[in-house]
Amino acid sequence: MMTLIGIVTILLVLLVAWQLIRIAELSAEIKKENLTGLPNVKENDVQGKLLFGFLIFLMAGFLYTVVAWGPKVLPTPASVHGEKTEFLFYLSLGIITAAFLITQPILFYFSYKYRGIKGRKASYMEHNNKLELIWTLVPGAVLVLLISYGLATWVRIMNPKFDEDPIVIELYAKQFGWTARIAGEDNKLGYANARYIEDVNILGIDKNDPNGLDDIVVQNLIKIPVNKPIKLKMRSQDVIHSAYLPHFRLQMNCVPGAITEFSFIPNKTTAEMRNDPMVVRQVSEINNIRTAKGEDPYEFNYILLCNKICGSAHYNMQMVFEVVSEEEYKDWLKEQKTFAQSI
């Protein structure tokens, strides 16, 4: 029944569209409108000058954007793979910017220079194989090289080769918060399922799986060691979320009913990033705004965010990742309760 209703609805929409087209055609015939009318010399001159003015406005806007917003970009990546993605990003941005700065001034300037003027006659050129070949092959070759390099970079990032086994950490997403689970001494996460969630067992860890008894569950803050490989395994309890750690150049969807992964090596501690000149300047600018509003000062942290609009409190899905030395990480682990100790 629903299928029949859908088919009838589509047919009615097509019929209405056809009738509207017929009405427009009949109206044009009745009014004897000249649908192919050409602009006069004065209109050509005005349009050409307006386009040249828009060119000036466009270039001024571009320069303003670079000067005003350029310093507000993310600081240098805090992960090994992030350096590769950063290079790929700026390579793509450089090519796009170069193409923009070459083509747009030519486009608008030519519209002004060759505008219709009394006594000027335009020459007609039907086809030019050489020009067609150039503006087809050059962009095509650039895109092929860029996409090939991008795919090769993606494959290396998603299939990393580490000198040692990575520390396995699970990120569990739900509306609206994050919970992390660090694999215990065996570096294996125990089986978990949403059906097992009860009381303090907020991740649904199977109590009968010995691999899960030494797992460590933390909320709000997790510490990870610098220069050590980390493997994140991601789950979602309800809807699609997206684990986003911008300073690590890391993002991966958390999908209900599936486990997604992303491995990386953090190469800058939180303390080192706080002393980075760019971070210091940006934090200072933020705190100037917060002080003017009477708010508490901000201190830089690596923050795990949700990059999917997952509901009304989407903005509140945050968790602090603190990158520390290996010694500090081990000391912090000793202070945490295992799953077996918490149940």
Automatic annotation (TrEMBL):
Stretches that traverse the bilayer: 6-24, 50-69, 89-112, 133-155
The upper taxonomy is: Bacteria, Pseudomonadati, Bacteroidota, Flavobacteriia, Flavobacteriales
Say what the protein does: Subunits I and II form the functional core of the enzyme complex. Electrons originating in cytochrome c are transferred via heme a and Cu(A) to the binuclear center formed by heme a3 and Cu(B).
Q: Which GO terms describe its biological process?
A: ATP synthesis coupled electron transport
**Descriptive protein name:** Cytochrome c oxidase subunit 2
Q: Keywords on this record?
A: Copper, Electron transport, Membrane, Metal-binding, Respiratory chain, Translocase, Transmembrane, Transmembrane helix, Transport
EC number(s) recorded for this UniProt protein:
7.1.1.9
Q: Which residues form the Cytochrome oxidase subunit II transmembrane region profile domain?
A: 66-161
Q: How does it sit in the membrane?
A: Multi-pass membrane protein
The cellular component terms of Gene Ontology attached to this UniProt record, alphabetical and capped at eight, are:
plasma membrane
Q: How are cofactors bound according to the entry's free-text note?
A: Binds a copper A center.
- The family this protein is said to belong to: Belongs to the cytochrome c oxidase subunit 2 family.
The family database entries (InterPro entries) matched by this protein are listed as: CcO_II, CcO_II-like_C, Cupredoxin, Cyt_c_oxidase_su2_TM_dom, Cyt_c_oxidase_su2_TM_sf
Source organism: Schleiferia thermophila
Q: Mainly resides where? A: membrane
Question: What cofactor does its activity depend on?
Answer: Cu cation
Q: Which reaction does it catalyse?
A: 4 Fe(II)-[cytochrome c] + O2 + 8 H(+)(in) = 4 Fe(III)-[cytochrome c] + 2 H2O + 4 H(+)(out)
